[in-house]
Amino acid sequence: NTLSRVRRLHAKSVDCMIDGSVTLTRLPALYAAGARRFVVGSRFVHAKDPQAAEALFRIQLRALASIHGA
After folding, report:
1. What mean pLDDT do residues 11-22 have?
2. How does DSSP assign 1-44, residue by residue?
3. CA 53 remoteness from chain centre
4. For the chain, what is the radius of gyration of the CA atoms?
């Protein structure tokens, strides 16, 4: 699955980007596994308020970075 692949790559110091199925719900697990780059285009395109959706992702990423020391 995606999380195990991210963990394996992260353990080898490989920087990976997640493209697809990136949601606010999945973001913490993906970040904890070692992913630091995310493609979330469709989440913003299909959101009622794309700017608000982007802002929520940025807030979540900043919170995760502070938790995980990044």
Report:
1. 91
2. -HHHHHHHHHHTT---EEES---TTTHHHHHHHT--EEE-HHHH
3. 13
4. 12
- 16, pLDDT greater than 90: no
* Tally of residues, the chain: 70
Taking the C-alpha atoms of residue 37 and residue 22, their distance in angstroms, rounded to an integer, is 10
Structure tokens, 68: 């995980």
Question: Where do we find the tokens 């979330």?
Answer: 40
Which pTM was predicted? 0.86
Contact between residue 68 and residue 31 where contact means Cβ atoms under 8 Å apart = yes
Residue (of 5, 46, 11, 48) closest to 29 by Cα position: 5
Q: Which amino acid is at 40?
A: V
